[in-house]
């Protein structure tokens, strides 16, 4: 095995380089929220711990100074077993690390931002020809930590990031005195009695849905072809990118995630899905929101949700193909054309 502290430090440096180049792409509120997430993770603070504004302010200034120094540097190769690998050669790096109980990923996220992490392997399995890694504690990570990611035929589920996301959702629901389905969700998990236990149970319940969403993402990628990824790179950092990703999310969910949730017929799983339906995704698919809410009232009403899901499979595939056509036929104007088209679309 390599020198683990050196390995972790190298990956973390690459994370800093990426953050230094892309942190400015986030809006102020999103940026501060992500910085708070990163601070908690780095300091190994409980999610419920109160943060010292002075401490986090000093840390933030020091981190931004570090990013400023590193932003112009190139990514370092990853030192593993007497070799140094390209940081995006995830398959080769994991071939060495997995037998040691470690998982690595180097890929791209929103805005075309490079994303890196390394963590402890919790579970390794295969589903529908896809290799799935469930990751527990992480030893290096970016400012951005998606709970789930797909890369080629690999799916990464990050438990720490998922648990943190669920905690922040609970905070938001409590602040906003949110709708009844959020209240019902918290009651089912008895969050007001034991928040830590509730978060653990929510995290485990959500993992399966995340896996099936990522399976759906892979299937959508096969349907749309390589030009879809090229389009996302071309649209990176624009509203058109968010629209395109929302369309792909809805298609993946209608093809795989929601049928799986309907098979399970568990109220808690549907509530978790509904709780995460927000932003552009929520605005584009109002009929899904209505059908989910009706499906929570009685089991018979889940028939309407099945009908919406069936309709969504064809609808969002057609929309996705139309966005791809705009990109292929009008590459220079595709950003504005996609925004204009999507502002008139909803199901």
TrEMBL record:
InterPro entries given for it? DUF6866_C, DUF6866_N, Sfum_1244-like
For the DUF6866 domain, which residue ranges apply? Answer: 7-158, 163-344
Write the protein's name: Uncharacterized protein
- Lineage of the native species? Bacteria, Pseudomonadati, Pseudomonadota, Gammaproteobacteria, Thiotrichales
């Amino acid at each position: 095995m390599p020198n683990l502290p050196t390995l972790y430090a190298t990956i973390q440096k690459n994370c800093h380089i990426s953050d230094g180049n892309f942190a400015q792409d986030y809006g102020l509120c999103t940026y501060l929220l992500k910085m708070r997430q990163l601070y908690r993770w780095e300091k190994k603070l409980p999610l419920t711990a109160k943060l010292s504004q002075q401490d986090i302010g000093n840390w933030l200034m020091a981190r931004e100074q570090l990013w400023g120094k590193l932003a112009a540097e190139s990514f370092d190769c990853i030192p593993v077993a007497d070799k140094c690998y390209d940081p995006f050669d995830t398959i080769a790096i994991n071939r060495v690390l997995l037998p040691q109980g470690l998982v690595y990923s180097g890929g791209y996220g929103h805005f075309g931002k490079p994303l890196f992490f390394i963590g402890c392997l919790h579970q390794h399995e295969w589903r529908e020809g896809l290799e799935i890694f469930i990751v527990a504690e992480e030893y290096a990570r970016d400012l951005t930590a998606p709970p789930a990611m797909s890369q080629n035929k690999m799916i990464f589920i990050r438990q720490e990031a998922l648990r943190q996301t669920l905690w922040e959702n609970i905070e938001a629901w409590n602040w906003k005195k949110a709708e009844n389905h959020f209240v019902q969700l918290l009651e089912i998990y008895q969050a007001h009695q034991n928040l830590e236990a509730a978060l653990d149970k929510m995290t485990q319940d959500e993992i399966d849905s995340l896996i099936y969403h990522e399976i759906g993402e892979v299937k959508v990628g096969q349907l749309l072809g390589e030009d879809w990824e090229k389009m996302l790179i071309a649209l990176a950092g624009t509203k058109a990118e968010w629209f395109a990703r929302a369309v792909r999310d809805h298609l993946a969910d209608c093809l795989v995630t929601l049928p799986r949730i309907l098979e399970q017929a568990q109220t808690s799983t549907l509530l978790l899905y509904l709780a995460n339906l927000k932003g552009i995704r929520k605005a584009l698919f109002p009929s899904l929101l209505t059908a989910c809410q009706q499906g929570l009232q009685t089991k018979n009403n889940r028939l309407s949700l099945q009908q919406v899901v069936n309709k969504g499979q064809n609808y969002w595939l057609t929309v996705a193909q139309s966005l791809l056509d705009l990109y292929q036929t009008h590459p220079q104007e595709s950003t504005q054309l996609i925004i204009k088209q999507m502002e008139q679309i909803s199901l």
